Amino acid sequence: MPNRKEAAPFRWGVATMSMPLIEVLKDYYAPVKAISDRTVTIYGFTLKAFGEYLGEQDGSGYREPTTADLDQYVVARFLAWRLRKREPATAAKDRSQLRALWAFAWAEALPGVARGPNVRPVVVPERVPVAWLEEEMRALIISAGQEPGSICGISAAAWWRSLLLTCFDTAERISATRSLRFDDIHGSLVVFKAEDRKGRRRDIARTISSDTAIAIDAISSPTRSLVWPCDVGAPALYARFDRILIRANLPTDRWSKFHRIRKTTASYYEAAGGSAQKLLDHSSPAVTRRYLDPRIVLQEAGDAPARLPKVS
C-alpha cells in the first residue's frame, strides 16, 4: 500500500489512475478496519446505488464507481439524487459510508483520489418512535404460531413464535438473535456473543420468560447448533414475516419489522421503571430516546398539560 507522503505530488496532477471502490472496500478498507461481512454487504449497497447514479448520468445504465468519483461535486449530486428516491436516513447512511471510504483512500494515498472528503451532512428528521402496543404484540405472537409450513425441517409456527418471543424478551437485534446457538442458552439466561452483536465489543446476558424457554425447547435438536437455522434468503424470510403481520392485521412497512419489537420492549421496560438504555446496551440516553414510544412512556416535557395551570 503506498505511503501518503510519498504519493502526495500525484494528488495535484492529472489523475491517470483509479481503483474500483468495491476493490478499495474489500481488499483494503475491510481488512484494515476489521469490519464484518454483513457490514461489507451494507457498504456494497451504497456502492451499487452510486454506480446506478453514475450510469444514469452517462447513459450506460450502470457504471462501476472508482476512486476518481470521490469528488465533492459528484458525491453531492449523488446524495441529492438519492434524496429524491429514498428516505433521508438512507442518504445519510450512503454519505457516511462513502465518506469513510473516501477518508481512508485519501489517508492511504490510493490512486485517483485528488483531495480529502468534503461533503455536506444529510439532515435526518428525528421521528417520534413507534412501538407495538401490548395488544398488537400479542396479535403478532398469535399469528406467528399459525404460520404454516416448515423451515429447515422445523415447524414454521414454532420457529417464528420462539424467535419473536426471544426478540421481545431480550430486546436484542435480529442479527444477533438469529446467530444464537443452543450452547448460548442456559435455562432462562441467554448470552449474546460479542462476535454476533453490533460493534462486536462485548457479550451481553439477558433473561427470557418461562414461556419463551419452553418455546425454544420445543424446537431444540441435538443434531444442530443454531437455534433458528434458515434455508431461504432474507427476501423470502421477510416475505413470510409480512404474511404473519398481515394475518395479525398489522402494517408491513419497513418500520414494522424486527426493530419495532426492540422499541416495544424498550418502551414497556422504561415505563415499568427499568433503564431502557442499559437494556438496549446504548452508549447514551440520546440514542435510547429514539426507541421510546410516547404512547407507552412519557419522556421529559411529554406530560406538560398535567404540570400546567388550567386556563380554559
Secondary-structure blueprint:
Layout: H1 4-11, H2 21-33, H3 37-58, H4 72-85, H5 88-107, H6 134-144, E1 150-151, E2 154-155, H7 156-170, H8 174-178, E3 185-186, E4 189-192, E5 204-207, H9 210-217, H10 234-247, H11 258-271, H12 276-280, H13 285-289, H14 304-307
Antiparallel strand pairs: 1-2, 3-4, 4-5
CATH topology of the largest domain: hpI Integrase, Chain A
* C-alpha end-to-end distance: 72 Å
Shape: globular
Number of helical segments with 4 or more residues: 14
Query: Class of the largest domain, according to the CATH hierarchy?
Result: Mainly Alpha
Unreliable segments of 5+ consecutive residues? 1-15
- Please provide the count of β strands: 5
Compute the number of structural domains. Answer: 2
Strand order in space, largest sheet: 3-4-5
Helicity, as a percent range = 40-55%
Order of helices and strands: HHHHHHEEHHEEEHHHHHH
CATH superfamily of the largest domain: Intergrase catalytic core
Derived from helix and strand composition plus strand pairing, the structural class reads: mainly alpha
Rg computed from alpha carbons, rounded to a whole number of angstroms: 23 Å
Based on the coordinates given, report the CATH architecture of the largest domain. Answer: Orthogonal Bundle
Strand content: under 5%
Mean pLDDT: 91
The biggest sheet, with number of strands, parallel, antiparallel or mixed sense and barrel status, is:
3 strands, antiparallel
